[in-house]
């Protein structure tokens, strides 16, 4: 247990250093030491270095909200992926498999297509969140009414609903009225953290942080569920009640994340695998490590999207796919030697 606790502490320290580095690096470069002083000053602590008003504005109003938004989104996707892989006893499952991502995408695309986003900045994330919640509710309702409520059936329902919602999204994209509207939809579907402000951070901080804390308390139950539904029932776990509850909680977290970031893949799939190689399959450590790992991964991916092709900015969803796909292939290959996908 001691080395797992040390791993969590190292991940927490790495996350802090990553956040500072992401606030320091950019077209306007600010030294690491000076960035630390600015962040300490912003938190009310005495600063050990001097800085200009311009540097303070760049760090606290432009970069820090984007870094925090990326960290929260990455944490939500990472911990949700780890929980779902345990819940379904399948290492290839991630939040998008139960309609969360496609539902959020459809909600956001509808907001852009029908012009709802003109009513305020909150309409796009709200539409995305409602779309995610509606998709999961439909899948759970159909699953609950079926005679055999198996895990395989739930995944198949998720795949079917994903295909249906993707078809509707493609239909809306094809019938887009203007180039600007089409560009907005495509950029959102690719995932990005551009122009994220403190408003976006405040919008997702509570549901994601509260969701993470609640999910952490289910670590022992998820460990037991790895043995199968029958053994879990004998151990006193109400599987039929717990599985929908966890799915709704995961949907709340990922729906909130996707609502401000767009579709970002591979974080919920790759990060739990990589973390499992270090912490092992114990969800009491795997879930918090996946949250920290997801935050670190997405902050670095967003930094790469800003700096790789300056002055061109890539979408962070594209960068995550470029990094995540090779990592996932490597993890699959390692499973042949008794690695991550056991």
Automatic annotation (TrEMBL):
GO terms for cellular component: plasma membrane. It is found in: Cell membrane. Keywords: Cell membrane, Membrane, Transmembrane, Transmembrane helix, Transport. GO terms for biological process: siderophore-iron import into cell. The keyword Phosphoprotein does not apply. InterPro entries: ABC_BtuC-like (IPR037294), ABC_transptr_permease_BtuC (IPR000522). CDD domains: TM_ABC_iron-siderophores_like (cd06550). It is a multi-pass membrane protein. It comes from the Bacteria. The chain crosses the membrane at residues 64-84, 96-116, 122-143, 150-173, 198-218, 245-271, 283-300, 312-333. GO terms for molecular function: transmembrane transporter activity. Belongs to the binding-protein-dependent transport system permease family. FecCD subfamily. This is Iron ABC transporter permease.
